[in-house]
Design brief:
single chain; 97 residues; mainly alpha; 0% strand
Length: 97
């Protein structure tokens, strides 16, 4: 009985983690406009990095390998989202001066 409960708990936890990652992680958008071409380039570079990570995940999944890599992929994508937001904040500050 205890083994069944633990197995069910593990399955539900795994499904919730997968759903949370899928919902939370959408490709960052380029939101900065001129006159900040270098900040725009930074946001575009973030998109390229995001796309390369996603391509790697899809490749490994197609080979039957779990592509979460111990949560590090999700963390990398979260950090890319954070970097994208920081670039936008930098552009906002520059615009306010």
């Amino acid at each position: 009985m205890i083994k069944k409960h633990r197995l069910l708990t593990a399955i539900i936890s795994g499904l919730l983690l997968i759903a949370a990652v899928a919902i939370a992680q959408a490709r960052p958008e380029v939101t900065i406009t001129s006159p900040h071409p270098r900040l725009v380039a930074g946001q575009k570079a973030i998109q390229v990095a995001w796309d390369k990570i996603t391509t790697a995940q899809e490749f490994y999944r197609s080979k039957g390998v779990r592509a979460e890599f111990g949560g590090h992929v999700a963390n990398a994508k979260r950090l890319l989202e954070e970097a994208n937001a920081e670039l936008q904040a930098a552009a906002d500050v520059a615009e306010s001066k």
